[in-house]
Design a protein that fits this description.
By secondary structure, the protein is mostly beta strands. It contains no helices and eleven strands. It has strands spanning about 5, 10-15, 20-25, 35-40, 45-50, 55-60, 65-70, 75-80, 90-100, 110, 115-120. The strands form two sheets. Strands 2, 4, 5, 6, 9, 10 and 11 form a seven-stranded mixed sheet that branches. Strands 1-3-8-7 form a four-stranded antiparallel sheet, with no helix packed on it. The chain starts with a strand and ends with a strand.
């Protein structure tokens, strides 16, 4: 059974930084993608960043240059370093994994429970 557990969310002022972590069990990144999605109240869940088994990455335009996705295969952990945070980054952030390379498409099979990020102005 695949389990994804996010951590690292919290409240921060605009311009600050946070690092999210996603610990994966029952899943190895030998193929496919892992990704971060986010959902603000009243909005659809959208892709933020994704990384494939080779380490290639893709980002949503709104976070390019500010967020960095990475993975530690030895620890089976996915990270999202978020810098220069803006109030519009406020959302629940979800970790996702799939054995297909879905990149920022929302059709991932495995999802975490989410971690809240709140950015105040």
């Amino acid at each position: 059974e695949v389990q994804l557990v996010e951590s690292g969310g919290g409240s921060v002022q605009a311009g600050g930084s946070l690092r999210l972590s996603c610990a994966a069990s029952g899943y190895t990144a030998s193929t496919g993608c892992m990704a971060w999605f986010r959902q603000a109240p009243g909005q659809k869940r959208g892709g933020v960043a994704a990384i494939d088994s080779d380490g290639s990455t893709r980002y949503a335009e709104s976070v390019k240059g500010r967020f960095t996705i990475s993975q530690d295969n030895a620890k089976n952990t996915l990270y999202l370093q978020m810098n220069s945070l803006k109030p519009e980054d406020t959302a629940m952030y979800y970790c996702a994994a799939d054995r297909e390379k879905l990149w920022l498409l929302p059709w991932y099979n495995y999802w975490g429970q989410g971690t809240q990020v709140t950015v105040s102005s």
